[in-house]
Amino acid sequence: MHKYLVDGQEHWANASDPQIPAALARVVQGIVSLNNFPRRPMHRTVGAFRRSKATGRVEPLYTYPEGTATVYALGPTDFATIYNVLPLWEAGIDGTGQTIAIVGDSNIDTQDVDGFRAMFGLPPNPVTVILDGPDPGSWLFDSVEADLDVEWAGSVAKNATIDLVVAETTEATAGTDLAALYAIDNNLASVLSDSFGECEQQLGNEGNAFERAMAEQAAAQGITVVVSSGDTGSAGCDSSGSGDAANGLAVNALASTPFNVAVGGTEFDNPAAYFNTTNDPTTGASAKSYVPEAAWNQSCASSGDPAGCGPALPAPWDVVAGGGGPSNCAVQDSTGNCV
To answer: Confidence band (pLDDT; 50, 70, 90) for 46?
Structure first.
């Protein structure tokens, strides 16, 4: 075991593969982890939200200029309009009687969720926070992910029970894995949502086997597991916002099992034709109908031509795109390493 300094942070990890006594080989598949490297939350922060106490003005606005373009931000009713959810709501198919479990390693201020729902005209539906072990508190980057996941799960299934299952990351295990295990072991929900990840190569054979076994158990119990595909395009081992991809083709190991649904982002083509220029005063909605879309890509190759990529490119011309690609761990060599 060694202490490592990575990106200015200290971590513990094993320097070589652990060994299992031969007598236990038939009953032990592997050791999931002997390190405290956390799973990465799969979101990209665009900017801060602010409301003026004096004027009540909200920034950013739901529809606002950015350079020469206009940004049409989505609210829950926009989503319901674009993806034809409104008829389901009208028929009473709105999550009533269902439970969605969101996994996280950070707590949240539940008033954020209440305020989000009130702002967009959704019915009150307080989130339930379930702690698996000590309360890790709320820490900025991962609490943003938890807020985002809880708010939007409850935006589409607006009357579903939303459980945020939180576990603290230990010296040996990621909190999100512990939270997912708790939700599955206790059969908490019909849907489990995990927006964290780590690439297959960095997770290792035992880690990949663990994620597959956990998703398989959930599927056997009738739990639909949805996992973020990631936000670094086909470079899943690189960090979002990196100037270039340096670690090869890779995908999120949590999303690449046969027993989960990998969910990736999209972006709209010619949105001005499909949005009103003003927003509904109750819901904030402005979408008129379905909007043609493509895979989300803010990288320098978003046009499909990599010739625009070069060194030291400023944001947003960096490794920022919807994740995906073939699993590297679908094929392993004779020693079980991903190839």
So the answer is: low
Give the pair of three-digit tokens for residue 336. 């079980």
What is the token pair recorded at 286? 């402005």
Q: What is the pLDDT of residues 116-126, one digit of tens each?
A: 999 899 999 99
- Note whether residue 339 is domain-resident: no
How many Cα neighbours within 13 Å face the side chain of 30? 16
Which stretches of 34-168 are DSSP H helices?
76-82, 86-90, 110-119, 140-156
Residue pLDDT, tens place only, 157-196: 999 999 999 999 888 889 999 999 999 999 999 999 999 9
Distances (CA, A) of 67 to 70, 71, 76, 84: 8, 10, 26, 31
A 10 A CB-CB count for 50 gives 10
- Quick one: pLDDT at residue 165? 98
Please state the pTM of the whole predicted model. 0.85
In a domain, 18, yes or no: yes
Count how many domains the chain has: 1
What is the domain extent for residue 305? 2-330
What is the domain-level CATH number for residue 169?
A: 3.40.50.200
247 domain-assigned? yes
> Cα(71)–Cα(286) distance, rounded to whole angstroms?
12
Cα(99)–Cα(220) distance, integer angstroms: 17
**Sign of the dihedral defined by the CA atoms of residues 150, 252, 141, 65, in that order:** negative
